[in-house]
Amino acid sequence: MLAALNKKQTMTDSERTARLALALSEGIGPVRGKILLDVFGSAGRALAAGAGSLRERAGLPAKVAANLGRAWERALTELKRLTALGGWVIVRGDDNYPELLAQIPDPPLALFGLGRLEPGDYLALAVVGSRQATDYGRRTTHRLARELAGLGICVVSGLAVGIDTAAHEGALAGGGRTIAILGCGLDVDYPLDNVGLRRRIAGQGAVLTEYPLGTKPHPGIFVGRNRIIAGLVQGVVVAEASPRSGALITAGHALDFGRTVMAVPGPLTDRRREGTHALIRQGAILVTSGREAAAEMWPQDRQPSLFDQEPQGARDPAPEPPPDLQGEEAAIYSLLEASPRHIDELIRQSGLPSDKVQVVLLELELEGLVRQLPGQQFVKH
Length: 381
Hints:
Blueprint: H1 13-24, H2 30-40, H3 43-48, H4 51-58, H5 62-67, H6 71-85, E1 88-91, H7 99-102, E2 110-115, E3 124-129, H8 135-150, E4 154-157, H9 163-173, E5 178-181, H10 195-204, E6 206-209, H11 221-232, E7 235-240, H12 246-256, E8 260-263, H13 274-281, E9 285-286, H14 290-297, H15 327-335, E10 341-342, H16 343-350, H17 354-366, E11 370-373, E12 377-380
Parallel strand pairs: 3-4, 3-7, 4-5, 5-6, 7-8, 8-9
Antiparallel strand pairs: 1-2, 2-6, 10-12, 11-12
Helix pairs in contact: 1-6, 8-9, 8-14, 9-10, 11-12, 15-17
């Protein structure tokens, strides 16, 4: 199903299918696709050109030029499979092609999708971060995304486990729109933990990828995915990132595209925050909430409708009173925070024997007051 969205299309179906054929051709990426469109004036003419003309006028290698001859049939097959899946495709030049994404140096030739894109998705921010997220990072990200959704701002992320998951979940909880960008084909269940979440996103937003059906994820594919995340939005919020997090690649793309980069601070002793703190030192805007991020992008005097009321679902429930604890339980509990604390640190600060601290932590966990994380880390629950 081609361009199954909500605007009238001006491109002919034949040219749209031809552009899809280019996108599906081995060796034809965004850059070569643009060259072919510029040189021949349309994808249809490029497909009709002989191998010699493709080599001489567009500089295509002989093998790539030969592959174009089989591209049309593959496009028709892909359309049938997409229709069976309930999906659609838009191609570069479609009226429905995302305006911001079209402005980057290498926009995808085609975008395959589930769900629905809306004109209001132009008002969008990406919220990204590490897969190995802390409990603190997941909670702050969920709240930030929920606030953005309540303000009518579309939340874009990559559907990865960790921070991306919290961003999508927060947007859905806020009753707003969210868009997930995949690093695989629409029919590939990756990550497995988020199959259900992907269905929910398709029902309340859209799932997009530049990769055709059947494409499996691999490390190199996510760099291209990250440029789409940055290209679709007006700004990027890095919620939590280690020094080598892929979220920093998204932030780099955002800077290259002239987008605003923001970062959420966190505990200074947590290495999983070093990437976000480095971004702040380098000039990223420090934000602690969705409202702050929105205000940085759209000041009240320019977009007052965003800020005339409390974001939907943004209020946190009233804090519960502290538990009635005595003695060693009270001492250990007072040392815990919302961010993880290692058991060795608790032993050192409490001055209690290690076996006693272990017993107290187990008792607190059984009472539902403490949660143990991997690596003997503990947080208040």
